[in-house]
Design goal:
Elements (H helix, E strand, L loop, with lengths): L2 H5 L5 E4 L3 E6 L15 H12 L9 E2 L8 E7 L2 H12 L4 E9 L6 E11 L4 E5 L7 E13 L6 E8 L6 H8 L22 E9 L6 E5 L14 H6 L7
Parallel strand pairs: 4-10
Antiparallel strand pairs: 1-2, 2-4, 3-4, 5-9, 5-10, 6-7, 6-8, 8-9, 10-11
Length: 248
C-alpha cells in the first residue's frame, strides 16, 4: 500500500488515542480483506497507525464490528487486545449504540415503528432472506425506525429514516425495510428501482460506547454528504443542527 492510499484516509479519522481509533468507512470499501482482494478499511487503519507512529512490522488493530461493504459511516477499531475484548463484550451485551440514516423508496405508513423478523443468511450467495423462528440458523432481527422527512416530488417518492439497531444481523436494515415494502435507495440486491451507478443510501451516522480504559461515555456523530444523491433531496443541515455534543 503506497502513501497516497494511506493519506486519503487521514481526514476520515475522527478520534484516536492509545486504545481506540474511530474512523469513517467510505461506501463500497470492505471492512476487512475479503475474497475480492480489494483495498479494505482494516488494512487502511493499520497502515495509517504504522506510518504515523513509525511502528515496524505488523501493527495490531482489532476489528470489533463490521459494516457491510456497500454501507458507509462510523466504525471503531481497537489498538490493543484488551480494548478489543472490552468493546466486544459491550457489543455482546447490547451496550454499543448504533444509529443509521437511510433513504427508502416510498412513504412508510407508520411514522415510527419497531420491526421484528427472523432472518437467515445464504453465505454462498451472500443473500439474506426471511425465515421462521424454527428454521435452522435463523436469527431474530430487531430495529426501530423513525421517518424524519419524506419527499414526494421525486419519482418514486423517497423518505429519510433514522434507524436504531437492536441486533446486528447481516443486511438487516436492507432486508427488513424491503419486507415492509420500502427498499433502501440504490439497493439493487434487495429490490430498489434505482439501477446501477448509485451508492447504497445507508450510513452509520452515530456510534456510542464506553471507552474500554477510561470508562468515559463516548459518542460520535458523522452525517452523510448533503450534496450527494439521494441525501441532497432532504434538508440534511436541519438534522445536523439538532445534534448537541452534551447528548441532550
Amino acid at each position: 500500500m503506497d502513501m497516497d492510499e494511506i493519506q486519503k484516509f487521514v481526514p476520515m479519522i475522527v478520534f484516536e488515542d492509545n486504545h481506540i481509533v474511530v474512523a469513517i468507512k467510505p461506501h463500497n470499501l470492505p471492512s476487512q480483506q475479503d475474497e475480492s482482494g480489494d483495498f479494505d478499511m482494516l488494512s487502511a487503519i493499520k497502515a495509517y497507525i504504522g506510518d504515523k507512529y513509525k511502528k515496524p512490522g505488523n501493527v495490531f488493530i482489532g476489528l470489533v464490528h463490521r459494516l457491510d461493504r456497500p454501507t458507509g459511516g462510523l466504525m471503531v477499531f481497537a489498538r490493543t487486545s484488551k480494548a478489543a475484548d472490552r468493546i466486544c463484550e459491550q457489543i455482546k451485551q447490547g451496550e454499543m449504540g448504533k444509529k443509521y440514516m437511510t433513504v427508502v423508496q416510498g412513504v412508510p405508513k407508520h411514522k415510527a415503528d419497531r420491526l421484528e423478523h427472523y432472518l437467515k443468511k445464504d453465505t454462498k450467495n451472500n443473500l439474506v432472506t426471511l425465515a421462521t423462528a424454527l428454521e435452522q440458523d435463523s436469527k431474530k432481527a430487531i430495529l426501530d425506525y423513525k421517518v424524519l422527512e419524506s419527499n414526494t416530488d421525486t419519482n418514486p417518492a423517497i423518505s429519510l429514516l433514522q434507524v436504531q439497531l437492536h441486533t446486528g444481523r447481516s443486511h438487516q436494515i436492507r432486508v427488513q425495510m424491503r419486507t415492509i415494502g420500502h427498499a433502501v435507495f440504490g439497493d439493487t440486491k434487495y429490490g430498489s428501482a434505482v439501477k446501477g451507478g448509485q451508492n447504497l443510501a445507508l450510513w452509520a451516522y452515530e456510534l456510542s460506547f464506553v471507552h474500554p480504559t477510561t470508562k468515559q461515555n463516548m459518542r460520535f456523530v458523522a452525517y452523510p454528504s448533503a450534496i450527494e444523491t439521494p441525501w441532497n433531496h432532504f434538508n440534511m443541515d436541519k438534522f445536523a443542527s439538532v445534534y448537541k455534543p452534551d447528548g441532550k
